[in-house]
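[Q] Does anyone have a clean structure-token version of this?
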Amino acid sequence: MSLITPDFGLFFWMTVVFLVVLFILWKWGFPVIVKMVDERKAFIDESLKKAHEANERLANIQKEGESILQEAREKQAQILKEAAETRDAIVEKAQDKARSEGARLLEEAKAAIEQEKKAAIADIRQQVATLSVEIAEKVLRANLKDDKSQMDLIDRMLDDVSAN
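[A] Here you go.
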């Protein structure tokens, strides 16, 4: 007997046992192993598919985020522009109102000054007339102290009236 070449009986029984184990594995073992490998492969494929979809969704979300951010920047710029226009309009309106109010106050002041001027002129005329009458009265009293000067004045006035 040699260690390298087995005996025919041993070889026969080893072959029979091998075929029985192979048959059992083929019938019940390999299908379970193949099924587990297929399930694992399907799970890995599904996971890869989901990961790919998640990457696509993430890319889409990033694009949407960038577009939303750009849109927000545009809206911000528009709002700032509108605010500046509104501010300018309010400032212009306030300036116009101040100008019109200033012009109105100036006109009122001019009217008040004119009224004061007319009142002062009327007062001065009144005082001048009163002074003139008083001076004329004093002059006439001084000149017409006696009857002869009164008669001379009457004659002169009559001559002036008849000349005209």
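[Q] Thanks! Anything notable?
[A] The first helix runs from residue 8 to 143.
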